[in-house]
TrEMBL record, chain A:
Protein name per UniProt: ABC transporter permease subunit
Location within or outside the cell: Cell membrane
Region (Disordered): 1-22
Membrane topology listed for this record: Multi-pass membrane protein
Species whose genome carries this gene: Isoptericola chiayiensis
From TrEMBL, chain B:
Transmembrane annotation, as ranges: 20-41, 47-65, 74-98, 288-311, 323-343, 375-397, 418-441, 490-512
Ranges for domain ABC transmembrane type-1: 289-511
Name of the molecule in the record: Maltose/maltodextrin transport system permease protein
CDD domains for this protein: TM_PBP2 (cd06261)
Protein family per UniProt: Belongs to the binding-protein-dependent transport system permease family. MalFG subfamily.
Organism: Isoptericola chiayiensis
Membrane topology note: Multi-pass membrane protein
Keywords in alphabetical order: Cell membrane, Membrane, Sugar transport, Transmembrane, Transmembrane helix, Transport
Length: 302, 522
């Protein structure tokens, strides 16, 4: 860097800055930013406060939820036990975790191959992945539905209404979405490390499992997280594939509550929404930095 | 980690260490599963699945036991899933788009013939009454009958009648090998199933089936249609009408009437023609395409403008900036399905918070008026989407080169001028790829539309279940009939998917040119 950076004098106050700035001055400088901030924080946070209040209201109806924090009761939360809600939670967690693990394993392995080996078809492979990335899997949900009808006639576990099948379908999108994110990160790990290991007699598998994977842990965490968030929120494929209520994920289940008899189920929905939001929110806030890094590296909320 | 070893010339994978054993065990599991699928596909006569599985097994085993395919060892697991559940499904969509797959055209011609014969059966006048016993095999119900010649035979819905050893008392069967005889109580409990059950007399559907009304006596029902294999015609034995197969995959009589079960055939571009010019679909289709573009564009524009505005506002160091930032991105951390559902409650016409509290009891039809519903969707998407834009704009602003800004300052540019001539263009350069993918994402934002308005309010003039806020992807869902509100039409739905593919591909091609991401591959 050049050392010519001019002294960072405040540009707005070239002539003798007053000790105490007037209120008007303060407002023009920074105060309006606080005003904007408060207005938009209310806009951003209000619906979240509302749903929290609705989940704690006693009545459990939509009308009854309009007085914020009028009554505080855990009746709605207790009421969840009489529904299939908790099995939806279990399903969602199972599907999201299994998909995340599979995605990380397969995506990292593919990124390693593309980053470290030079083979015929490598360029074509990367280009193909880049193109496939543009077509979200959900566009083909009709074909996925028909494919699973046929598969189910052969292997029932891979047919409609099976969580295993749903996980497999999600894993189909694993390479397309995440390989590039990882590929970039793998390229930042110096190749000298691999070569040193190779000279020391490590096989490619040993290099991969014991050296590379440990160095790329941050990107693995980001991909796992993005995968969990995306799978947890995925709606259309889960809705098309999972048919019996006990197999639904949270997205499908909560939708069914709101779409049928909105008024009566509102309290239950609110409680369920709060419970399904908390883990994602917590993950998000704790790992904000990594997620933001991963996002700006080129992925979109999916 | 790095155990010092003599460099060896042979491949290390050949040594029988722990890694090799793990690989062997994993491959054993994969192969066992593969062989099971092969066998199951053989039994179910699914030749395509059999072939695909066999090919995959061969490839996987070659990759993992060959010394030459090292890179493939790392790519193959992902590739298997990618091929099956993404590339194949895209290809399959293309295939279905050119067929009439859907209600009434669900399967092959052979299945259609069987179904037609089974559906059009009548009790034959004067056919002998067969003493019948209802039996079960775990879950499946079956019949055991005493045939006129005194022998006994059993079968169920899948399995035609076959001779069995049975104990006969008073002319009816009281016990039979391999089946459990149901008592009166059990029969009453499953009455509907019993009267619906048809047990084929033989493998040939022309021979009819045994059915019962009272669970004691069975009669042979014969199809009123007869299929002539050689001439490929269906003949109605009652009226004598002869039906011949037509190009639409149905049996058609000379007077143009058709039988109700058909089969899949290629229909060429018919599905596309339907979408673009059929009177029922074309009007809604063009409206929906236009709205999809407007929605996707407006979504990106509104979220980006708000996100950029807030990012600029909080780009200067003020007190509490971190707290503001954290609170502002909260909507982004809400699971994608909670937000639209939550807003559908807030915007509810009669009981929602917005009408009841904020507007003091007004009954604004936020989600049921065509224009307001569109506005609501864009508004809710703004709430959902601005934090993302806020995040990426903040990141982009922080990485702006400071020397350019300084140069602008030295040249005497004011704040506004600096912003419009320097900051904004630089910001756009670094965020354009993300804006394009955001456009593509919103173009297919199924969950938002489906959960908030369900596509409604409905078009008044359309006979198809489509509405003013439907976007292309929700139209695909409705047309496919997967939620049961409309007859299933997989062919047309797939054709619409292809239209989306083409649009996305065009957008992507532009994106490619713009960002030259390909150059990053070396």
């Amino acid at each position: 860097m050049t050392t010519t950076s001019i002294a960072p004098a405040p540009p707005t106050a070239p002539t003798s800055p007053p000790r105490r700035r007037s209120t008007g001055r303060w407002f023009a400088e920074n105060g309006w930013r606080h005003l904007v901030g408060v207005v938009f924080v209310v806009y951003a946070v209000f619906p979240i406060v509302y749903i929290l209040s609705a989940s704690l209201s006693e009545g459990g109806t939509l009308t009854g939820s309009n007085q914020l924090f009028d009554t505080i009761s855990t009746a709605n939360y207790a009421g969840l036990a009489d529904t299939a809600f908790w099995s939806w939670v279990v399903n969602s967690v199972q599907v999201a975790v299994a998909t995340a693990v599979g995605t990380v394993l397969m995506g990292a392995a593919a990124a390693y191959a593309f980053s470290r080996f030079r083979f015929t078809g490598r360029r074509a492979g990367l280009t193909t992945l880049l193109i496939i990335q543009m077509f979200p899997q959900m566009l083909a949900f009709v074909a996925i539905f028909l494919l699973l009808i046929s598969l189910g006639e052969v292997v029932p576990a891979l047919g409609l209404n099976s969580k295993v099948a749903l996980i497999c379908v999600y894993l189909g999108g694993a390479l397309g979405v995440n390989t590039f994110l990882m590929y970039g990160f793998f390229n930042t790990i110096p190749r000298e490390l691999d070569e040193a290991a190779k000279i020391d007699g490590a096989t490619h598998a040993q290099t991969y499992w014991t050296i590379i994977l440990r160095l790329v842990t941050p990107i693995l965490a980001v991909v796992a997280l993005l995968s969990i968030i995306a799978t947890f929120g995925e709606f259309v494929i889960a809705r098309v594939l999972l048919q019996s209520e006990s197999n639904w994920t949270l997205a499908v289940g909560l939708y069914s509550w709101v779409s049928s008899l909105l008024e009566a189920n509102w309290g239950l929905f609110a409680a369920g929404a709060v419970i399904s939001t908390v883990p994602i929110l917590a993950l998000f806030l704790f790992l904000q930095k990594y997620i933001v890094g991963g996002l700006t590296a080129g992925s979109v909320k999916g | 980690m790095t155990v010092l070893q003599e460099p060896r010339t042979e491949s290390h994978a050949r040594r029988y260490g722990a890694g090799f054993l793990v690989k062997l065990a994993l491959m054993a599991v994969v192969d066992a599963f593969g062989v099971y699928v092969l066998w199951a596909a053989w039994v179910a006569e699914s030749w395509i699945i059999l072939g695909a599985m066999l090919a995959m097994l061969v490839v996987v085993n070659w990759v993992y036991f060959s010394r030459r395919a090292v890179p493939l060892k790392y790519v193959v697991p992902g590739l298997v899933f990618l091929f099956t559940f993404q590339i194949f499904t895209i290809g399959y969509t293309g295939w279905v788009a050119f067929t009439n797959y859907g209600d009434g055209h669900n399967s092959t011609k052979e299945d259609a013939v069987t179904a037609l014969l089974a559906q059009n059966e009548r009790r034959v006048e004067g056919s002998p009454a067969l003493p019948l016993t209802v039996v079960s095999d775990g879950d499946e119900l079956g019949f055991v009958v005493v045939q006129p010649d005194g022998t006994t035979a059993a079968g169920d819905a899948e399995q035609p009648l076959e001779p069995v050893e049975a104990t006969v008392a008073d002319g009816t069967v009281t016990a039979v090998d391999g089946w459990e005889v149901l008592d009166r109580q059990q029969i009453i409990a499953r009455q509907g199933e019993v009267t619906d059950l048809r047990v084929p007399v033989s493998d040939d559907p022309n021979n009819g089936s045994v059915r019962t009304q009272d669970a004691r006596t069975g009669y042979v029902y014969l199809p009123t249609l007869v299929y002539d294999d050689g001439a490929d015609t269906m003949t109605d034995t009652v009226t004598g009408t002869v039906y011949t197969p037509n190009d639409d995959g149905q049996f058609e009589a000379a007077d143009g009437s058709t039988l109700d079960v058909g089969w899949r055939v290629f229909v060429g571009l018919d599905n596309f023609t339907t979408a673009f010019s059929d009177s029922r679909y074309a009007g809604p289709f063009f409206q929906i395409v236009a709205w999809t573009f407007v929605f996707a564009f407006a979504s990106v524009a509104t979220t980006f403008l708000l996100g950029m505005f807030l990012a600029t506002v909080f780009n200067s160091p003020i007190r509490g900036r971190k707290i503001y930032r954290t609170l502002l991105i909260l909507p982004y951390a809400i699971p994608g399905f909670v937000a639209p559902l939550l807003w559908s409650g807030l915007l509810n016409r009669s009981f929602g918070f917005v009408n009841q509290v904020l507007l003091g009891g007004a009954a604004v039809p936020w989600l049921t008026d065509p224009w307001l519903a569109k506005l609501s969707i864009i508004g809710v998407n703004l709430w959902l989407g601005f934090p993302y834009m806020f995040l990426i704009c903040t990141g982009a602003l922080q990485s702006l080169p400071s020397d350019v800004l300084e140069a602008a300052k030295i040249d005497g540019a004011g704040r506004l001028r600096t912003w419009s001539s320097v900051t904004m263009p630089l910001l756009l350069v670094s965020t354009t790829p993300l804006l394009i993918s955001s456009f593509a994402f919103n173009f297919n934002n199924f969950a938002l539309v489906y959960m908030l308005t369900g596509g409604g309010p409905r078009f008044e003039d359309a006979s198809v279940p489509l509405g003013h806020t439907d976007i292309l992807i929700t139209m695909v869902y409705s047309v496919a009939g997967l939620d049961g509100t409309a007859p299933k039409n997989f062919g047309l739905a797939s054709a619409l998917s292809i239209v989306i593919f083409v649009i996305i591909a065009t957008i992507s091609a532009i994106a490619f040119k713009r960002t030259r991401s390909l150059e990053e591959i070396n």
